[in-house]
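can u do me a favor
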C-alpha cells in the first residue's frame, strides 16, 4: 500500500466523505447568515450598513484564506488533498495541523512527514490525533461557555483600574511563549548540531524564516496599534506567514 498511498488518500471516496462534511458546514454557515440578516432587519438595523459589514467580512477573509490554501498545499504532499482540505476548512488552524501531524508522524515511527514514507497505519494515527486533540475546544465551549461569558461581562462592567488579569489570559500567553520557544529551540538545536560544540553545520534557513516572520508580524502590529490601522489585525498572521514563506523561497534558491 505504500506505493499508492497518496493516490488512495486523494481518491474519489475520500473526496466524497470530506466534501460532504465541508458542504454540510457550509450549509450551516449560510443558514446562520440568513438568520442573522433577518434578525438584523427585525431589530431595525440599516440595510446599507449590514451590506457593508458583509462585504467587509468577505474582504477580510481573502488574505487569511490564502494562508489556509497554502497550508492545504503544504500538507497535501504527505496526507493527500481531501484530509488537509477538511481539517483547514472546518475547524483546524495551520500552525496546529502541521505541528500535530509532524508529532504524530514521529510517534508512528516515520522518519519525516512525507508522502514517500507514509503508511496506512501512520495516516490513521495522524488523522486520529489531529481530530482528537482539537475536539476539546468545542467540548469545553459547550460545557463552560455560558459561565465564562457571565464572568466576561462582569469584568467588562468594572472600571479599568479594578480589572485583574485572569488565569486564562496568563495561561494563553504562557502557552504561546512555550510553543514559540519549543520551535526556536528545535531550530537552534538543528543549527548547532554536528561535530563538536557550536560547529553550526545545520540549516540556518528556519532561523532566518522565523526572524523575518517575526519582523513582519511586529511591523503589522506596530501599524495596527500606533498608526490606528486596526483592519490589519485580520491579516497580520496570514501576511507574516506569506512573508516567511517568501523568505524561505528566496533563501532556498
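np, heres the sequence
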Amino acid at each position: 500500500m505504500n506505493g499508492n498511498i497518496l493516490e488512495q488518500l486523494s481518491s474519489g471516496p475520500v473526496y466524497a466523505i470530506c466534501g460532504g462534511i465541508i458542504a454540510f458546514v457550509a450549509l450551516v454557515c449560510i443558514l446562520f447568515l440568513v438568520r442573522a440578516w433577518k434578525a438584523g432587519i427585525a431589530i431595525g438595523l440599516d440595510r446599507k450598513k449590514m451590506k457593508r459589514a458583509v462585504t467587509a467580512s468577505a474582504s477580510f477573509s481573502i488574505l487569511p484564506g490564502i494562508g489556509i490554501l497554502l497550508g492545504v498545499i503544504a500538507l497535501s504532499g504527505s496526507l493527500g488533498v481531501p484530509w488537509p482540505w477538511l481539517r483547514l476548512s472546518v475547524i483546524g488552524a495551520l500552525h496546529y495541523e502541521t505541528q500535530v501531524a509532524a508529532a504524530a508522524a514521529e510517534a508512528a515511527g516515520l522518519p519525516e512527514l512525507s508522502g514517500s514514507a507514509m503508511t496506512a497505519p501512520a495516516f490513521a494515527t495522524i488523522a486520529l490525533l489531529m481530530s482528537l486533540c482539537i475536539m476539546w475546544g468545542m467540548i469545553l465551549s459547550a460545557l463552560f461557555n455560558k459561565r465564562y461569558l457571565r464572568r466576561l461581562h462582569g469584568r467588562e462592567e468594572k472600571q479599568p483600574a479594578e480589572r485583574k488579569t485572569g488565569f486564562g489570559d496568563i495561561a494563553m500567553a504562557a502557552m504561546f511563549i512555550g510553543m514559540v520557544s519549543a520551535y526556536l529551540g528545535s531550530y537552534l538545536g538543528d543549527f548547532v548540531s554536528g561535530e563538536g560544540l557550536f560547529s553550526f553545520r545545520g540549516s540556518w534557513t528556519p532561523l532566518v524564516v522565523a526572524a523575518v516572520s517575526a519582523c513582519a508580524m511586529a511591523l503589522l502590529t506596530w501599524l495596527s496599534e500606533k498608526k490606528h490601522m486596526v483592519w490589519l489585525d485580520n491579516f497580520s498572521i496570514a501576511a507574516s506567514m506569506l512573508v516567511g514563506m517568501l523568505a524561505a523561497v528566496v533563501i532556498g534558491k
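The chain has a mean pLDDT of 81. hope that helps!!
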